[in-house]
Specification:
Layout lengths: L2 H14 L1 H39 L4 E6 L6 E2 L19 H8 L4 E10 L3 E5 L4 E3 L4 E4 L11 E4 L7 E4 L8 E2 L13 E2 L4 E5 L5 E5 L15 E5 L8 H4 L14 H5 L3 E10 L8 H4 L1 E4 H11 L11 E6 L5 H10 L2 E4 L2 H43 L1 H9 L4 H39 L4 H9 L12 H28 L2 H6 L3
Parallel strand pairs: 2-3, 6-15, 8-14
Antiparallel strand pairs: 1-16, 1-17, 3-6, 3-16, 4-5, 4-13, 5-9, 7-14, 8-15, 10-11, 11-12, 13-14
């Protein structure tokens, strides 16, 4: 028999018993939908985890630190701590940074320093005061390569210019305001066009982002005064060895303050977008060039040793898939590393485990559908025994009869898989629309394909549709294999004499 004839017979036999075929196909549809939807929920969890990690910062940044040094802290009176207690760890210096830049997949690298010394920050001639602050430094020539995002303004070009974190101004107190009104806490973005604002007394309210009060002052239009060192000793005792009446306590105006070696006037040229993977300075601190911070430390404390090694560094990788390999190469160089890669892998392993569990639950439904297909085909063989005998008597090959029954079973699986995929897509769309909170043009599109700021609950990748179709067809063929073998084993004469 020609293949076209076999296909025609398959279609005729299935249409001859429409109710039985429809019910069998419906079982495959339910099983296919169960698998696709269950796995899509696991894939949606993976997408949500990745979105959560993106909010935490750049996933392609690797934090490198010298063994025995938890950070790149710089203190007055000495260089940064680097290396382990045994003194055998590798040195994190400029030459090492250059070696890291040559690692395949690395697009940029810079040493990172953090000023680990008490500081005072003031603005507007001492009206606004912050008794703490994060002062960090990187190689500003690597700023763009490392992925630091400047939300407003431009990169510093002069020695007294710095970048401020996104919420830098919110740590300042207005000393002319009464208690309870002298602080404005950092607002929290609600993600719906509003921000949560809280006063110093803990009273919070959500307001439109464009109506938020904001900080007391704009750091880009206000000169910042940085005082390094202990104020009780005037801050310069460590540098000069003299009693410390070298500057005012608030770093304000005055001849003494302007000439004190530990007081620095800074101009903010831009504000950074918050990214904790690149350092706390992107949130509520100041970021400057490495040479600038070294010069400030040397001026504030002339007894400080010249810095040749660092406690930490930032390494930028071109793609998240290369983070693990680059981290391993850096560890082989004798340094410790930290990145979002381990967290990402852990979350993805959890997501895969959940997907397997959910997929297993869906597979039970498809197993039931497979039993239904087997039952349908066995009944079909029983009812068509005489027909099989006539076909054998007319000279039909055994393989053609087997192919016919397998084709019927495979077609039931294919049709059920196709319908199941369509139904799964619609169910996934409805789930995402409900989760995203509405039906409009943008939301429907985002519910289907996602987006940078969209976390879908149900995600059906293209390969899942192909897998569902292939699996449904395979279930159909496997379920029809035993009935097909039963059909070809029936002797022709016995089959013809059968009255069924």
């Amino acid at each position: 028999m020609r293949f076209a004839d076999i296909l025609r017979l398959c279609g005729q036999n299935l249409l001859r018993r429409k109710s039985r075929t429809i019910l069998t196909v419906l079982g495959v549809v339910v099983g296919c939908c169960s698998i696709v939807i269950m796995v899509s929920l696991g894939a949606g969890l993976t997408e949500q985890n990745r979105a959560m990690l993106r909010q935490m910062g750049d996933l392609t940044i690797i934090n490198v630190y010298a063994q025995g040094s938890a950070s790149g802290a710089m203190t007055m009176g000495g260089a940064s701590s680097s290396g382990s207690g045994s003194g055998t760890s590798a040195k994190l210096d400029d030459a090492t940074i250059d070696d890291m830049k040559r690692i395949p997949g690395v697009v940029g690298a810079s040493a990172q320093m953090t000023l680990d010394t008490p500081v005072r920050l003031t603005a507007d001639n001492g009206r606004y005061i912050a008794d703490y602050g994060t002062i960090e430094a990187v190689d500003l020539s690597q700023l763009d390569v490392l992925g630091f995002a400047i939300a407003d303004g431009a990169k510093p070009v002069k020695d007294d210019e710095v970048l401020a974190g996104q919420y830098f101004a919110y740590q300042f107190m207005d000393k002319y305001r009464p208690e309870g009104q002298n602080y404005r806490q950092q607002p929290y973005d609600m993600g719906d066009g509003t921000v949560m604002e809280c006063d110093d007394m803990g009273n919070c309210a959500a307001v439109p982002a464009d109506q938020a009060k904001g900080a007391f002052f704009d750091p880009m239009t206000t000169q910042i005064t940085l005082t390094i060192g202990d104020e009780e000793s005037g801050g310069a005792t460590a540098a000069t060895g003299t009693t410390g009446a070298t500057g005012t306590s608030d770093g304000g105006s005055g001849t003494a303050a302007s000439t004190a070696p530990n007081v620095f006037k800074l101009k903010v040229t831009g504000t950074l977008k918050e990214d904790y993977n690149k350092g706390q300075s992107t949130s509520n601190g100041l970021l400057m060039d490495l040479d600038q911070l070294k010069a400030m430390i040397a001026k504030a404390d002339r007894t400080a040793a010249k810095t040749t090694t660092y406690g930490s560094a930032l390494v930028k990788v071109s793609d998240i898939s290369q983070v693990s390999d680059v981290e391993q190469q850096i560890r082989d160089m004798g340094f410790g590393t930290n990145s979002s890669e381990q967290t990402r892998k852990s979350l993805e392993e959890q997501s895969r485990a959940i997907q397997l569990v959910l997929g297993g639950i869906g597979a039970v439904s498809l197993l039931v559908a497979a039993i239904g297909i087997t039952n349908t085909m066995i009944m079909s063989v029983t009812e068509r025994t005489r027909e099989i005998g006539i076909m054998k008597a007319l000279g039909c090959y055994v393989r053609d009869i087997r192919i016919m029954f397998l084709g019927e079973a495979g077609f039931i699986g294919l049709l059920g898989g196709l319908i199941g995929c369509v139904v799964s897509a619609l169910v996934s769309l409805v789930i995402n629309l409900i989760a995203l909170g509405g039906v409009n043009g943008t939301t429907i599109w985002n519910a289907i394909v996602g987006g940078e700021d969209v976390s879908r609950v149900s995600v059906i990748p293209w390969w899942l549709y192909l897998f569902a179709l292939a699996f449904s067809c395979a279930i159909g063929v496997v379920s029809g294999f035993q009935p097909a073998n039963r059909a070809v084993r029936i002797p022709a004469l016995d089959a013809i004499r059968n009255d069924g």
